[in-house]
């Protein structure tokens, strides 16, 4: 029983890592290409909203 809880928690951690890592890469790319912080902030708000909804 405890083994299942460990695996479930581990899967959730990897999912959050994946979302954080790729969200950061996309946000950084937007900042690099636009030379402005606004698109990166808008993307960050949109990304976090979508992660919360899904």
Structure commentary:
- The model has no long low-confidence stretch (mean pLDDT 79).
- The radius of gyration is 15 Å and the shape is flat.
- The longest helix is centred in the middle third of the chain and has 33 residues, at 2-34.
- 91% of the residues lie in helices and 0% in strands.
- Helix 1 runs antiparallel to helix 2.
- 0% of the residues are buried.
- It is an all-alpha fold and 54 residues long.
- The chain has one domain (3-53).
- The two termini are 27 Å apart.
- It contains two helices and no strands.
Q: How many DSSP E strands?
A: 0
Task: Name the structural class.
Answer: mainly alpha
Order of helix and strand elements from N to C terminus: HH
Query: What global shape is seen?
Result: flat
What is the typical, i.e. mean, pLDDT?
79
State the main characteristics.
hydrolase, mainly alpha, 54 residues, 2 helices, flat, transmembrane helix, 91% helix, CPBP family intramembrane metalloprotease, 0% strand
């Amino acid at each position: 029983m405890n083994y299942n809880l460990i695996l479930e928690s581990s899967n959730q951690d990897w999912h959050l890592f994946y979302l954080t890592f790729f969200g950061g890469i996309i946000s950084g790319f937007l900042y690099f290409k636009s030379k402005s912080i606004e698109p990166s902030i808008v993307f960050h708000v949109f990304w976090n909203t979508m992660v919360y909804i899904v």
